[in-house]
Specification:
alpha+beta; Histidine-containing Protein, Chain: A; three-stranded mixed sheet; 3 strands; 34% helix; globular
């Protein structure tokens, strides 16, 4: 059971959303990326066109204060160019 208060989970999701929106690789791109948090674990789902972007996404999310672990469920889809 997740005992983390709702406001902390929401804050982690908000931080993740802001961080990615500010990254040059993701700014303006229309990659369908979503976040959920459970305790100090951040789950990311979506689609990006390259494995490199999947790894960049994970690395950036691990920098967020309060995130101990990232579960990266992002799918690499070369047809998803984000335009």
């Amino acid at each position: 059971m997740d005992n983390t208060p709702e406001d902390i989970r929401t804050t982690l999701v908000q931080r993740a959303t802001r961080l990615i929106a500010g990254q040059a690789y993701f700014r303006g791109a229309k990659y369908p990326i979503t976040f959920e948090s459970f305790e100090k674990i951040l789950v990311v789902r979506g689609r990006v066109p390259t494995f490199y972007l999947k790894q960049v996404l994970q690395s950036e999310l691990l920098r967020i204060d309060g995130v101990d672990r990232v579960v990266n469920e992002v799918v690499v889809d070369p047809k998803n160019l984000g335009s």
